[in-house]
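User: Here's a structure from my thesis project, written as structure tokens. My advisor, Dr. K., wants to see whether a designed sequence matches the one we expressed. Can you design one independently, without my sequence as a hint?
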């Protein structure tokens, strides 16, 4: 199940990078450095993942008592455990997005422009 989630995230993030490709090329033409372009991709990845994780954690905390008490006798998950899971989740998401971000940041502006026009 985890592998399916990672593959799903990889396809989602590759689509997001390629869909905003022309914007990225324009920003590079206007003088943005490759380092800042890569940082903006990483920031976008973390913002998306933080929002998704916040919704998932809120749903878990809201539905923990009504649903989990029927399945498990006692739920021992604490807030610190949720933040540990978020840290692992963010790390895995950044690792899976790294090949796409590296491809985005490498090469010349003209090469990136030509790729986006295909």
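Assistant: Designed independently from the structure alone:
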């Amino acid at each position: 199940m985890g592998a399916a989630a990672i593959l799903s995230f990889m396809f989602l993030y590759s689509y997001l990078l390629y869909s905003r490709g022309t914007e990225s090329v324009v920003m590079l033409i206007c003088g943005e450095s490759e380092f800042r372009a890569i940082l903006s991709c990483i920031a976008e990845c973390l913002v998306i993942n933080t929002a998704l994780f916040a919704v998932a954690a809120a749903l878990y905390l809201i539905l923990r008592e009504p649903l989990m008490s029927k399945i498990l006798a006692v739920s021992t998950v604490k807030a610190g455990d949720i933040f540990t899971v978020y840290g692992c989740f963010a790390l895995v998401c950044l690792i899976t997005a790294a090949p796409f971000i590296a491809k985005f940041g490498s090469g010349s502006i003209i090469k990136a422009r030509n790729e986006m026009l295909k």
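When you compare it with your expressed construct, this may help: DSSP finds five helices and no strands in the chain.
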